[in-house]
Amino acid sequence: MFRFRDRELGARIFERLKSLELDIRIMHVCGTHQDTLMRFGLAPLFRDAGIEIRQGPGCPVCVTTPRELEEAILLAESGKTIAVFGDMMRVPGVSRSLEAAKAAGSDVRVVYGIDDAIALANRGKELVFMAVGFETTAPTTASAILSRPPPGFSILCCHRTIPLALKALLDMGEMQIDGFINPGHVSAITGTAVYDFISRDYGMPQVVAGFEPLDLVMGVYMLARQIRNGEAKVENEYTRVVKPEGNRRALGIMDAVFEPCHVAWRGFPVLPGTGLGLKADFEEFDARKKYEEILSGLDTHIGEPEGCCCGEVLRGLMEPDVCSLFGSECTPEHPVGPCMVSSEGGCCIAFRYGR
Fold first, then answer.
1. CA distance 154 to 130
2. 287 pLDDT higher than 60
3. In terms of residue numbers, what domain contains 171?
4. How many C-beta atoms lie closer than 10 Å to residue 121's C-beta?
5. pLDDT, tens digit (0-9, with 9 covering 90-100), for 105-129
6. Is 237:222 a contact under the CB 8 Å cutoff?
7. For a designed S-S bond to 210, which of 1, 83, 215, 290 qualifies (C-beta 3.0 to 4.6 A apart)?
8. Against a cut of 0.85, is the pTM above it?
9. Could you please report the per-residue DSSP string of 317-338?
């Protein structure tokens, strides 16, 4: 049943989808799209229209690797103040979480943004901000670095970028994907042109969609129409927010501070050019260089939690409730992996709405 305002229009779009006689599998790359899909009961309606929608690596907390989390925990336990977004607190590490480190006496602070972290550093604290997120949050980090924060401030940079991750998904060839629903928030910064190479080189239809239920329904319809017509291009359903050129000011700030680097994603190997590293002019704010001696004590290989299937969920190979730990050993109160912690994580969303 539709549970959003534009019921009549939504119902008409679903009727048109059914008339196309589809049998396709598409992937979205945004945790908010997954929330919309599940919260408003759209998934079974799409299945009835011959459309299977899989979730990809669209949760920034979820794709942050166990090693990066262990870096933050080690710095906290060495006496540094660590500032993080709330979703990172309860993500399990090898033997504990940042929340557990805080309970044991480490100084770990939840902040709403990097400005809050800088305010703490201005009080004389030696503080490390765990900078997590895609192109949506990277400009705020870059802007703060350009403002030259106090000497005690540094960032543990865990930022990642989306377009080349889509390429990596296709190159891995683990699953047949007929089209991508691209993320609206990320695309508001990047614009739509950054995805053109995916359609050109891989013949892949793509649509940038917003997050209201009708946005997602319309975005899927636009994508299905491309697939049915044998087209491969980038369309923009979210025109009220996303422009072809993106946010040029934000992109300029990012380019001034960051340079692409190779980085692993949870569930993925190292993906070339998908990370953001601080340029040489800003190395004084790079926690990995500033505290290199402390971090050198970490194991060279830090694996995933035993039995955790977050990697498969993030690559679209598994629905959360297929995991043997889902809802029993792994719950939001006692998570095994990050997908059950973050509000954008597929497992957390499935637990909230699928049950």
1. 9
2. yes
3. 1-289
4. 20
5. 999 999 999 999 999 998 888 999 9
6. yes
7. 215
8. yes
9. SS-GGGSTTBTTTB-SSS-SSG
Of 114, 139, 156, which is closest to residue 257 (Cα–Cα)?
139
CA 58 to each of CA 62, 149, 160, 330, 346: distance values in angstroms, whole numbers, following the listed order:
8, 30, 11, 20, 9
* Residue length of the chain: 355
Mark whether 141 and 188 lie in a shared domain.
Answer: yes
Mean of pLDDT values over 320-342: 95
pLDDT tens, residue by residue, 210-249: 999 999 999 999 999 999 999 999 999 999 999 999 999 9
Query: Residue 276 pairs with which residues in a beta bridge?
Result: 260
What percentage of the chain has pLDDT greater than the value 90? 92
Per the domain annotation, does 336 fall within a domain?
A: yes
- DSSP symbols for 292-315: HHHHTTS-S---PPTT--HHHHHT
Q: Which residue type is seen at 231? A: E
**323 found inside a domain:** yes
For 59, 89, 128, the CA distances from 110, given in Å and listed in that order, are: 19, 8, 12
Q: Provide the 3-class DSSP secondary structure of residue 155.
A: strand
C-alpha span between 212 and 7 (Å, rounded): 12
Contacts of residue 325, Cβ cutoff 8 Å, sequence gap at least 6 = 307, 308, 309, 336
Coil, strand or helix at 189:
helix
Residues 247 and 191: their CA atoms lie apart, in Å, by: 7
Which CATH number do you get for residue 183? 3.40.50.11750
In the chain, the amino acid numbered 8 is: E
